[in-house]
Write a structure and sequence with these properties.
The complex is a heterodimer of chains A (455) and B (298). By secondary structure, chain A is mainly alpha-helical. Chain A is built from 14 helices and ten strands. Chain A has a domain of 204 residues. In chain B, helix 1 runs antiparallel to helix 2 and helix 7 runs antiparallel to helix 8. Classes of the chains: A mainly alpha (455), B mainly alpha (298).
Chain lengths: 455, 298
């Protein structure tokens, strides 16, 4: 297979367990890092456009100021996301050459499409950023729409590769060789719709709640100082509303996703729900709670339905069940917390519209909202862990084991150490730069004077 | 022409674009590091892309095309040379982020040195790997790798100096123009002296090498006579012919490693449709970028 004599020599050995674990950790870490930036890359343009749309509709300059600031931040985060994404495409080869060698052509077309969508997103982001003072307000708003659409498309194309790893389609294996490749069948595998929707909603939630949490901190500070600053209130309301609108949809899509996994990846589902033995009338267990027959009822609408447990899976094909179960529970808890906050916000909004009360600018709501950004990010990472760790020991479900894919060359763990250091510095620098870019707390904005509240 | 041939042609085109545009960006970073003069650095900062390092798109294109069209080739190169390629990737991270950070928060003193050092590290590593792959063996630390790394870095520096004379003139500083002309002549002579013995040692008998040398000499003449537009063409030709010559040496058995035609069809169709959207929007961005602000605030 190898065409280089050097590579042929190196392939003779296999990766040590330490190097194999390091490769998995490096992939998990760099992907986990990138996924947050990618979420912001999808969500922030959407939030910016919402704010700009409000500014066009109402002529409110505070919305325009928010839109400008968010798009500037989006520009910086986009650049960091672009390089952290580049690292991932290197890692596909430096960490998982066996995977690329055999299956690169099956899912490669999806990456070509993703690259095109990404480039369109980048170009229109440039047009949008440079167009502020060069295009008419309406035309400028319209140039933002391709940024959002291309961002959603590029995320969807990338997800098709992961959903393919969970539900490989579009090829045949004849004597260990890949033939009859149908790249479109690979891309539109059965897991694609549910995974793409789950990830896009998660991205919008992460970005919405994360941006809102920054303004929640500012609003708490305003409260202590007895100030009312419309800039901070709208800066909170727009992204939080987006996150809150996605939260109930995400619960429905999440339910669909777990039913899909139950039908198609029984090992992953048994790990998620902690089903050890195949049995009828499986109870729903969550942390220390247990409801008899509930899981069978929820999944099959039959309290006595039989569900496959981990003991039905051959021992060498079981994922690390404990990690998957904990990650799944963390995701559910964080998701329910966000759903509750969203309901609180919606209820207050409904009452405010009827003139009964103001929006909840109270301490407890804001304190909870401060945590919402981190909670959404944690939920996303936990959900990603369920998907990826739950697929183990397979890199391509049922077809290729992860050990077969790893780079056999020695020393991968040193790569992990270097990557950890570089990314820690990168994360710290990104946060520090974003903090420098923000408006100084409480300072009057050039466009809108905050109203002072008398004591 | 078969589908794999078209794919290889596209990969070579992407590599050439990455060398000519991305390479010039790396070289500009090198001059930013080397020249301590603020006036030089301002020209360099002005010349580089507005938002993020768009020229890495060429690299992504080359990688995606390679792993889709020739999966085993991609897997072998990436796994055998994972150390220099990981360093190159981290260099891209360091460069890309310090580049945008320096624009967003200009008062940080540590952005510039990291930017400069990573601008040298990345092309060095790429050049070392490319040379080892082309000459068929060894690691990036072998003499061939060392030589290829140095040569590629020199090519980038030369390209950047040639391009930057033009930018210096746009900013209208006679002294800076003079200095960048000096850099271009110096690095041109050095790169030529580095490239020729290599071509002889590795036994490159391609007419491309003669073309490269001729274009290099013509560039020296054109720089001397301040033909700044013409020298951009000859300078680029002198550099890109080195890449083509090296690619000719590699002699990869691509047909045996090529992906199925069904895959390549989808990829080519996607690229065609993509180009229909990408090219006009790029032109629009460029036009906007050249135009001054027409209204003050929204």
């Amino acid at each position: 297979m190898s065409f280089l004599p050097l590579a042929a020599d190196a392939v003779a050995g296999a990766a040590t367990p330490a190097d194999f674990m390091a490769a998995r950790q490096q992939m998990a870490f760099t992907l986990g890092f990138h996924i947050i930036l990618a979420s912001i890359g999808i969500g922030l343009p959407a939030i910016t456009l919402l704010a700009e749309w409000r500014s066009l509709r109402t002529g409110d300059t505070v919305y325009a100021e928010l839109a400008r600031r968010w798009m500037k931040a989006a520009g910086v985060l986009f650049a960091v996301g672009a390089v952290s994404g580049t690292v991932l495409s290197f890692e596909m080869g430096t960490l998982w050459p066996g995977f690329m060698d055999k299956y690169g052509q099956v899912f490669g077309a999806a990456f070509a499409l993703e690259g095109i969508a990404f480039f369109i997103e980048a170009i229109f982001m440039g047009i949008y950023l440079y167009g502020w003072d060069r295009l008419s307000p309406k035309a400028h708003f319209v140039t933002g729409i391709p940024v959002v659409i291309a961002g959603l498309l590029s995320a969807s194309f990338v997800v098709t590769v992961n959903s393919w790893m969970n539900q490989p389609r579009g090829f045949k294996l004849v004597d260990g060789r890949v033939t009859d490749v149908d790249p479109l069948a690979a891309m539109f595998n059965p897991a694609t719709p549910v995974q793409a929707m789950h990830l896009i909603l998660a991205s919008l939630m992460v970005c919405g709640f994360l941006v809102a949490s920054v303004y929640a901190v500012a609003l708490l500070r305003d409260r202590r100082a007895g100030r009312v600053d419309r800039y901070n209130r709208l800066g909170f309301a727009v992204p939080f509303s987006l996150g809150a609108a996605c939260a109930p949809l995400q619960v429905l899509v999440g339910d669909w996703a777990s039913r899909f996994v139950a039908d198609n990846q029984p090992a992953k589902f048994a790990a998620m729900e902690g089903i050890e033995h195949t049995q009828a009338g499986v109870p729903f267990r969550f942390a220390v709670f247990e409801i008899p027959n509930a899981l069978s009822l929820m999944l099959k609408f039959d309290a006595h339905a039989t569900l496959r447990g981990m003991d039905a899976i051959p021992a060498d094909q079981r994922p690390p069940a404990e990690v998957v179960k904990i990650a799944f529970e963390v995701m559910i808890v964080a998701g329910m917390f966000l759903l509750a906050l969203a309901a609180w916000w919606a209820f207050s909004w409904w009452r405010a519209r009827r003139g009964a009360a103001d929006l909840p600018w109270r301490g407890w709501f804001l304190r909870a909202a401060t945590v919402a950004g981190v909670a959404a990010a944690v939920a996303m990472e936990a959900g990603w862990t369920v998907t990826e760790v739950g697929r183990q020991p397979w890199i391509v479900y049922g077809v290729m084991r992860t050990e077969e894919a790893v780079n056999p060359n020695p020393g991968l763990r040193f790569g992990l150490y270097v990557v950890l250091v570089v990314y820690a510095v990168l994360a710290a620098a990104t946060v520090s730069v974003l903090r420098r870019m923000r408006r100084r707390p409480g300072s009057p904005s050039p466009l809108a004077e905050p109203e002072k509240v008398g004591t | 022409m078969s589908y794999p041939d078209v794919a290889l042609g596209l990969i070579l085109l992407g590599l050439s674009a990455y060398l000519l545009f991305g390479g010039a960006d790396f070289g500009a970073g090198l001059w930013h590091l080397v020249s301590r003069r603020r006036s030089d650095q301002r020209v360099i900062e002005h010349a580089m892309g507005p938002l993020w390092e768009a020229n890495h798109v060429w690299l992504i294109f080359v990688m995606v095309m390679t792993w889709t069209a020739f999966p085993p080739v991609f897997a072998d190169i990436m796994s055998a040379h994972w150390v220099p390629l990981s360093l190159a990737a981290l260099g891209i991270v360091a460069r890309g982020s310090t580049f945008v950070f320096a624009k967003a928060a200009p008062d940080q003193p540590w952005h510039a040195p990291i930017f400069g050092i990573s601008s040298v590290l990345t092309p060095y590593c790429f050049g070392a790997v490319a040379t080892v792959v082309a000459t068929g063996g060894g690691t990036w630390l072998s003499p061939a790798g060392l030589y290829g790394g140095l040569l590629t870095t020199a090519l980038c520096a030369y390209l950047a100096a040639v391009y930057l004379i033009w930018d210096a003139r746009r900013l209208g500083d006679a002294e800076v123009i003079l200095r960048f002309r000096g850099y271009a002549m110096m690095s041109g002579v050095a790169t030529g002296l580095l490239a020729l013995p290599g071509a002889v040692t590795f036994g490159v008998h391609s007419p491309l090498m003669a073309l490269s040398a001729a274009a290099g000499l013509a560039s020296l003449f054109l720089v001397h006579h301040q033909r700044l537009l013409a020298v951009r063409v000859t300078g680029a030709l002198a550099v890109v012919t080195v890449l083509w010559g090296a690619a000719g040496m590699a002699g990869l058995d691509l047909d045996r490693h090529a992906a199925h035609d069904a895959v390549l069809q989808v990829v080519f169709a996607a690229l065609g449709v993509g180009a229909l959207i990408l090219v006009p929007s790029m032109v629009w961005l460029f036009v906007l970028f050249q135009r001054g602000p027409s209204r003050t605030a929204s």
